[in-house]
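Example 4.3 (complexes with small molecules)
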Amino acid sequence: MLSLGIETSCDETALALLEEGRVLGEVIFSQVDKHSIFGGVVPEMASREHLRKLQPLWQRLLQQTGRRAEELDLIAVARGPGLLGCLLVGLGFAKGLSLGLKIPLVGVNHLQAHLLAPGLEQELKFPAVGLLVSGGHTNLYKIDSSIHFRLLGRTLDDAVGEAFDKTARALNLPYPGGVYIDRFAGFAEPDQDMFPRPYLDTPSLDFSFSGLKTALINHIRKHPRLVQENPLEITPESIPDPELAGVCASFNLAAAETLQAKLERAVISSGVQNVIMAGGVAANSMIREKIQGLCRRMGLNLVLPSLKLCTDNASMIACCGEILARHGMYHNLELEAVPRGRKIPWDYVRDKS
Ligand code: KG4
Ligand code: ZN
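Answer. The structure with KG4 bound is encoded below.
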């Protein structure tokens, strides 16, 4: 099966070709530079960029892989959750190709695609607990098979990636801030007591990260010197001053230990042996270290995607699409985009036409 994956849910425009689970090629245009001066993604600008970039990227992907559009067996497109205008551009492109080339279409849940992405690199075993940590979501799932996901917990306010990005913004670090906090954290030892591990005093598997962000903002108020003068002069390779590095390290640790504690509870309550962590924040070195430590201690089989598969990409969309198609699950041209915050409907059709 030759599948095209299309990802336009936020600020990466990405297309990938996958053949029987093997990535033949991927092209990505990251809009990060365009949005960074605004300190976050500007939705309308992001949609316009997707519209501008999709066609040239598509031509480049065909050239790079030496394949022809007519050879495709499946078009898989991220249908949500994401920014509505951005998703609509990807869906329009997917439907146009599907209609014009008479190729089956399937809409992919972006969050499930993140969690299945490491399957491109190693075998996934089920049942598993899945921890999805991204810019928009912090979700815990019980995953019974590659198509059966049950939500165990989610964030009640900020997603963990959002807390990283807002914290970075308060420090006047560039957008997206997670990478900067992670890199700068490497220059100092964390202070265990600087920040809280929020929402652990309840048995719930939900998260709440706004308290952590607020604790950091209060800390900055007391130490205004932490706020950087000019984000445009800062790169991930910059050497931070020791006080800033200490704050980043302590924030990293608080976020990592909070995720670790809830994951441990989810594993115990669901009684599984397998754990998958995925999403942009799964690239964080402290979070990887803590989750690896937990799984080692508990004798669990942990699957972590490589760094390039953590953040948004189209290979994961193609991969998830292929799995759905193998189960006979498709969509027709009525496929709808689902914005962040709305449940993704189980609206697959059996008929490939
Ligand atoms: O999965 P993703 O690419 O997009 C969404 O679906 O949201 O995740 C993006 C998020 C951003 O919040 C970014 O700051 C965060 O992932 N991120 C990190 C790191 N790399 C990316 N957060 C912490 N540490 C990192 N190394
Ligand atoms: Zn994502």
